[in-house]
Amino acid sequence: MITSKRSILLNAQANGYAVPAFNIHNLETLKAVLETAADLRSPVIIAATPSTVRYIGEHYLIGMMEATQKQFDIPVCFHLDHHERLENIKELIDLGIHSVMIDASHYEFEENIKIVSEIVEYAEKSGVAVEAELGRLSGIEDDMVVDEKDKMYTDPYQAKEFVVRTGVDSLAVAIGTAHGLYKGKPNVDINRLAAIQKEVEVPLVLHGGSGLSDDLVQETIRLGICKVNIATELKIAFAQGLRAYLKENPEVNDPRYYFKDAIANMKRVVSDKIKMCGSMNRG
Ligand SMILES: [Zn+2]
Questions:
Q1: Distance in Å, CA 161 to ligand 1 centroid
Q2: What pLDDT is attached to residue 52?
Q3: Phi then psi for 279, rounded to 5 degrees?
Q4: 23: nearest Cα among 2, 52, 1
Q5: How far apart are CA 228 and CA 193, in angstroms?
Q6: Residue range of the domain that includes 98
Q7: Could you report the per-residue pLDDT of 21-60, keeping only the tens digit for each?
Q8: 3-class SS at 145?
Q9: Residue 208 maps to which CATH number?
Q10: Where on the phi/psi map is residue 19: left (φ > 0), alpha (ψ -120 to 50), or beta?
Q11: CA of 82 to the centre of ligand 1 (A)
Q12: Distance 136 CA to ligand 1 centre (A)
């Protein structure tokens, strides 16, 4: 069942849980997420970065989305994660994608508003939900690399103005989380999140969810986070499973076998994150 991201997130906001957004890369990782979410009756967001869309191919991605609609009856929505090229976003909206993140967070405030507003206006016609980011997370996600010195926290008052002027459906906040792996202990500014929640009505989004403790993420959920992005931890689980399997079974050359442990490993992480987000039995 495909549900709009807007309604998935508003339901989470109204009931005090978050929906996990998992970055997928191929059919195996998509199925690992969907089968686990279906077992746990959790709504789920399937996220694809620009390089994932290039890797899978946009028509295959839309095909996967349509197949999901037929095979699973939990609320699922396909989402573009950190997309920047306006023409690509519009093309994928025309092809039927459910939800997009337009990331113009590296531009200054007015320019960010202008770029995001253009996508909101375009997306509205198709009922597509739009997420944008204010502030800037450090770390690495696919092609996107932001140095620690270039990170910028979200200002609560600017966030309010940003949401009102752009009309976005959800807002990604920069409160000290980072993409990729944390080098030291993550330093998350919980007070800033509380201040943002006071000012902003739309659901808030936490990027850089890999490597944060369950307690910390749950605290952010109590302060308005309705979507938690998980990418790196899934990649690690999948790669570790694959590596170990091939090491133990060097004679196996059939992908239907050698992906087995990789998928099982990834499913364990997906299941843990769904429980952490409190989205179990909400779908
Ligand atoms: Zn992100």
A1: 22
A2: 98
A3: -95, 0
A4: 52
A5: 14
A6: 5-231+266-277
A7: 999 999 999 999 999 999 999 999 999 999 999 999 999 9
A8: strand
A9: 3.20.20.70
A10: beta
A11: 6
A12: 10
The total of structural domains in the chain comes to 1
In a domain, 111, yes or no: yes
Tokens in use for 23? 């970055």
**Distance from residue 224's CA to the centre of ligand 1 (Å):** 17
In whole angstroms, give the CA distance from residue 210 to residue 48: 16
* Residue in 39, 73, 81, 150 annotated catalytic: 81
pLDDT digits (tens, 9 = 90+) for 54-110: 999 999 999 999 999 999 999 999 999 999 999 999 999 999 999 999 999 999 999
User: How far is the C-alpha of 192 from the C-alpha of 202, rounded, in Å?
Assistant: 16
Alpha carbons 162 and 183: distance in angstroms, whole number: 31
Q: Strand pairing partners for 132?
A: 102, 171
What is the widest separation between alpha-carbon atoms in the chain?
60
How far apart are the CA of 101 and the centre of ligand 1, in A? Answer: 9
Q: Catalytic site residue 81?
A: yes
Q: How far is the CA of 154 from the centre of ligand 1 (A)?
A: 14
Contact 7, 45 (CB under 8 A): no
Residue 215, C-beta contacts closer than 8 angstroms, at least 6 positions apart: none
DSSP string, 77-101: EEEEEEE--HHHHHHHHHHT-SEEE
In a domain, 252, yes or no: no
Residue 204 lies in a domain: yes
**280 Cα to the center of ligand 1, angstroms:** 23
Q: Is residue 248 part of a domain?
A: no
**Residue 213 in tokens:** 């403790």
The rounded distance, in Å, linking the Cα atoms of 80 and 70 is: 21
**Token pair 């295959």: residue:** 60
